[in-house]
Amino acid sequence: MKKITIQEMPKHVGETVKMGAWLANKRSSGKIAFLQLRDGTGFVQGVVVKAEVSEEMFATAKGLHQETSLYVVGEVTEDTRSAFGYELQVKEIQVISESTDYPITPKEHGTEFLMDHRHLWLRSKKQHAKMKVRNELIRATYEFFNDNGFVKMDPPILTASAPEGTSELFHTKYFDEDAFLSQSGQLYAEASAMALGKVFSFGPTFRAEKSKTRRHLIEFWMIEPEMAFVEHDESLEVQEQFVSHIIQSALKNCKLELEILGRDISKLEKVKAPFPRISYDDAIEFLHKEGFDDIKWGDDFGSPHETAIANHYDLPVFITCYPTGIKPFYMQPHPDRDDVVLCADLIAPEGYGEIIGGSERIWDYDLLKQRIEEHGLDQEAYNWYLDLRKYGSVPHSGFGLGLERTVSWVTGADHVRETIPFPRLLNRIYP
């Protein structure tokens, strides 16, 4: 007898198969028991008909507790009433391990309770769906960059300096030296691009930012490409092609998961390159017309400002050329203005905020050295970074996409804490 997964059931209609599963839920009448089964690849209903199994087997089915692990044998049949489209006509049940008093029952639980039990909450249908979408965005990311000639490079997690010159870093000791957990792999990706042309990194980053908003995590994952001989406008084209690709991949390969989450996919179906663009100057003017009198030129945008701009377009929108004073030291100045830089943030619609930050990088040695001094940074710590401008410097650009914010947008999640398996928040490092 063939052992299969729930995901493989469509290939075995009419066959009797064996599956390992956990009992997610159950209900029963006098003559039929309906078992909601899950195996990690998906969820399916198992139907146990009293007249078709032994009395002992039917009693076992009715007495099962939530999250008990099982081997089940049954026939795969089509079921047009379910979103999955299939169910299992169960003939045999073998209990592997009993589960009693499972803490997450089919009722409402508070957020803190669920977060305390995150190791178990991941088993639920909606959390499972979010993780499957996350996985698809990761798969599609590798697909996009591999298909477009990028090389994966892995920057260090322990660093001697701050890429963006902030104080929001986690400090540690590296034997007898100071070190920090990385807040970005960008500078190392730039060095890699000077060796390999087009590269991308994909790894964990850390921000000691004391923020409790629904968009912030202490530890999160960033996708950070860097491209030699690529200028600002060319980089924007890569960004919109990349985002279009991963969104369309999610729509194609996670249709069931998005349906489970109740996501309005019509919003996502419109996400195709090119994306609208608005300059920072024009964004300020737009916000004033919309009644945001609190914002003035030189201020960074907050969540309400970004939401108003994105909702106007109902698509991801690039806000370009921010003031020099509110952006990191390494961004290339605008060729015609000294008060703005060649950069852009990509703002997702529906209130999900910035998902990408990117820029053309300063490639002139003297200017970069000047910027390091102006920002009060330790030049010695950046000597290796300055070397990239000493030995064959070229125009180059890059960007960083936050995975969890993007998963939040695609899945319609209320908070980024549900888009990473084990979130690290200002008040949470357990489990």
Automatic annotation (TrEMBL):
Question: From which organism does this entry originate?
Answer: Kurthia zopfii
The name this protein goes by in its record? Asparagine--tRNA ligase
Any GO BP: asparaginyl-tRNA aminoacylation
Instruction: List the catalytic activities from the record.
Output: tRNA(Asn) + L-asparagine + ATP = L-asparaginyl-tRNA(Asn) + AMP + diphosphate + H(+)
Instruction: Enumerate the subcellular locations listed in this protein's record, separating them with semicolons.
Output: Cytoplasm
EC primary class: ligase
A Pfam family it matches: tRNA-synt_2
Under the GO molecular function aspect, what terms does this record hold?
A: asparagine-tRNA ligase activity; ATP binding; catalytic activity, acting on a protein; nucleic acid binding; transferase activity
Question: GO cellular component annotations, sorted alphabetically?
Answer: cytoplasm
PANTHER family hit by this protein: ASPARAGINE--TRNA LIGASE, MITOCHONDRIAL-RELATED, ASPARTYL/LYSYL-TRNA SYNTHETASE
What family does the database annotate? Answer: Belongs to the class-II aminoacyl-tRNA synthetase family.
Q: Which residues form a coiled coil?
A: none
**InterPro entries tied to this protein:** Aa-tRNA-synt_II, aa-tRNA-synth_II, aa-tRNA-synth_II/BPL/LPL, Asn-tRNA-ligase, Asp/Asn-tRNA-synth_IIb, NA-bd_OB-fold, NA-bd_OB_tRNA
Q: What are the record keywords, sorted?
A: Aminoacyl-tRNA synthetase, ATP-binding, Cytoplasm, Ligase, Nucleotide-binding, Protein biosynthesis
Q: Which gene encodes it?
A: asnS
All copies of domain Aminoacyl-transfer RNA synthetases class-II family profile, residue ranges: 131-431
Give the lineage.
Answer: Bacteria, Bacillati, Bacillota, Bacilli, Bacillales
E.C. no: 6.1.1.22
Q: Where mainly found?
A: cytoplasm
